[in-house]
């Protein structure tokens, strides 16, 4: 079988699997968030923490609860790293330095999982599974909770209540993420992923030398790393390491895990607003963008760049021979489109335009299909912008899902859209302007060096976590700057999204008339795709011309 045929077959099988679980998983999640019944374990949890599960919150209280919970998580994860040496299962590793501990805590709480360290020689087993893996669950649950709150803003009328953060967080963790993670862990172990508490395995290399490869609870962290669109690996090589991703089947399964919840949430959205066609429309936009970037990445990597790669038949530098070009490009597109950040190949070694495709994909705001929850609420906010643009063109008040889009809503949408580019471009500008930051760039005399810095801040601001490996980011400047960008890029947009939910929930629905733009048809899908690309292109195009475009051309 040719590489092209095998590549098309794996893409087709992936889409078939996603289609098979779309309806049942999307429907199940809708029932989770609309049910008024609590499980026994949930009732015990609420009683323990003094939560009234029947009391809905205003958007302000919901936001303060979320911020307080995330701040506490940040502090606890920081302390866990700083006290590592005196804790069980530390493997004798020292305490994590303060700057790196802050960066890592901010990274995992913000669902970014940027890693400026080699996990094998930095984090013990306790920090890995009780700190990092726990935050993989909780940060993913926070994103889904925000998406559900925004859906309620569209679905409810004449109320200032958008749900209860503590209920949404608990139900997401216990009813959705944990059951899937348990089944996924068993599947990964069956495929050959490591799951133990070993301190290391002695192996002999091909040249006769011995080396120690650490074991650990890898499969249980790997599954939530992908399912929660987190991305932080147990090993420095991430999903290119055979202990994390041993074969082609596990590779395809991990891509499936990255996509499954963001895709299924579009059906949850359609069911909760009582119009399944709206969910299909949002899915259509996400799918169109994902397919376009998958094609572009695959084309550029198979095409190669330069005489050597074309003579070799493909650009295989930095890629696992177990996966090849097609599986590497498919993984890269899925991970940069879902804010996962996991990698099964070195994005830094992609062709200039192939790496630029991954970078530009993140710059869309990671809405194709986006992270767990973040992709959906990001796309819904862009949908509000799209109907506003359409309203300007026809001269009538824009409406979306029977809610008027007034000046207040557009101010919140504008602030949401501008936040991430602001922190990304300011951060990249400071890094290029400071000598201490420029000293960390490996390719100092080429556009690729600028691409490495731009990729780092884009990854941090969009809560992705993947990197161009040529940048040495474990220095005080990058640990602090990227940590702040991750926190601002995560929580400032969340506040604006929740404020939008509260504003929409207070409105009285308006009746659909002949002048109302149908937001479930192909015309709106096209308009929304164009809005995503144009807004992104106008924002980041000047920066892209200095990096990947200059290098590629």
UniProtKB/TrEMBL annotation:
An example Gene Ontology molecular-function term: P-type potassium transmembrane transporter activity
Residue ranges of the TM segments: 61-80, 87-109, 129-155, 176-194, 255-273, 280-300, 376-394, 415-437, 481-501, 522-543
Topological type in the membrane: Multi-pass membrane protein
The organism's place on the tree of life at top rank: Bacteria
Entry-linked InterPro entries: KdpA (IPR004623)
Keyword Cell membrane on entry: yes
Annotated keywords: Cell membrane, Ion transport, Membrane, Potassium, Potassium transport, Transmembrane, Transmembrane helix, Transport
Subunit structure: The system is composed of three essential subunits: KdpA, KdpB and KdpC.
Protein role: Part of the high-affinity ATP-driven potassium transport (or Kdp) system, which catalyzes the hydrolysis of ATP coupled with the electrogenic transport of potassium into the cytoplasm. This subunit binds the extracellular potassium ions and delivers the ions to the membrane domain of KdpB through an intramembrane tunnel.
Stored HAMAP family: KdpA
Protein name (database record): Potassium-transporting ATPase potassium-binding subunit
Organism expressing this protein natively: Kribbella rubisoli
Lineage: Bacteria, Bacillati, Actinomycetota, Actinomycetes, Propionibacteriales
């Amino acid at each position: 079988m040719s590489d092209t045929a095998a590549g098309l077959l794996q893409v087709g099988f992936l889409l078939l699997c996603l289609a098979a679980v779309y309806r049942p998983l999307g429907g199940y999640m809708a029932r989770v968030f609309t049910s008024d019944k609590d499980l026994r374990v949930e009732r015990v949890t609420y009683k323990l923490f003094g939560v009234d599960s029947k009391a809905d919150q205003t958007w302000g209280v919901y936001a303060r609860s979320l911020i307080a919970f995330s701040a506490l998580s940040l502090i606890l994860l920081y302390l866990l790293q700083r006290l590592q040496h005196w804790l069980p299962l530390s493997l004798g590793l020292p305490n994590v330095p303060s700057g790196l501990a802050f960066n890592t805590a901010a990274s995992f709480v913000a669902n970014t999982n940027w890693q400026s360290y080699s996990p094998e020689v930095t984090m013990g087993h306790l920090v890995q599974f009780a700190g990092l893996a726990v935050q993989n669950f909780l940060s993913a649950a926070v994103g889904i909770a925000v998406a559900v709150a925004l859906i309620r803003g569209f679905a409810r009328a004449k109320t200032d209540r958008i749900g209860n953060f503590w209920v949404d967080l608990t139900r997401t963790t216990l009813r959705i993420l944990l059951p899937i993670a348990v089944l996924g862990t068993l599947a990964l172990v069956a495929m050959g992923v490591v799951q133990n508490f070993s301190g290391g395995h002695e192996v002999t290399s091909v040249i006769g030398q011995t080396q120690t490869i650490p074991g650990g609870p890898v499969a249980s962290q790997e599954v939530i790393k992908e399912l929660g669109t987190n991305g932080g690996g147990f090993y420095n090589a991430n999903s290119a390491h055979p202990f994390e991703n041993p074969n082609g089947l596990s590779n395809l399964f991990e891509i499936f895990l990255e996509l499954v919840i963001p895709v299924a949430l579009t059906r949850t959205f359609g069911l909760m607003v009582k119009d399944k066609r709206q969910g299909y429309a949002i899915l259509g936009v996400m799918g169109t963008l994902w397919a376009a970037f998958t094609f572009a990445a695959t084309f550029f990597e198979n095409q190669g760049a330069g005489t050597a790669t074309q003579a070799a038949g493909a650009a295989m530098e930095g890629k696992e021979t177990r996966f090849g070009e097609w599986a590497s490009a498919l993984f890269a597109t899925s991970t940069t489109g879902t804010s996962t950040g996991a990698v099964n190949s070195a994005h830094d070694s992609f062709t200039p335009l192939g790496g630029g495709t991954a970078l530009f994909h993140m710059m869309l705001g990671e809405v194709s299909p986006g992270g767990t929850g973040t992709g959906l609420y990001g796309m819904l906010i862009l949908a509000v912008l799209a109907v506003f643009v359409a309203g300007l063109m026809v001269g009538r008040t824009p409406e979306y899902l029977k809610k008027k889009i007034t000046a207040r809503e557009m101010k919140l949408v504008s602030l949401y859209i501008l936040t991430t580019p602001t922190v990304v471009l300011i951060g990249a500008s400071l890094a290029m302007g400071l000598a201490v930051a420029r000293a960390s760039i490996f390719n100092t005399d080429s556009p690729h060096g600028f691409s490495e810095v731009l990729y780092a801040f884009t990854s941090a601001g969009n809560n992705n976590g993947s990197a161009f490996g040529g940048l040495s980011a474990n220095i005080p400047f990058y640990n602090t700057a990227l940590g702040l960008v991750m926190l601002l890029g995560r929580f400032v947009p969340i506040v604006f999204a929740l404020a939008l939910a509260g504003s929409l929930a207070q409105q009285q629905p308006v009746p659909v008339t002949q002048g109302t733009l149908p937001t479930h048809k192909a015309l709106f899908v096209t308009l929304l795709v164009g809005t995503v690309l144009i807004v992104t292109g106008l924002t980041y195009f000047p920066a892209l011309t200095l990096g990947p475009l200059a290098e590629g051309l």
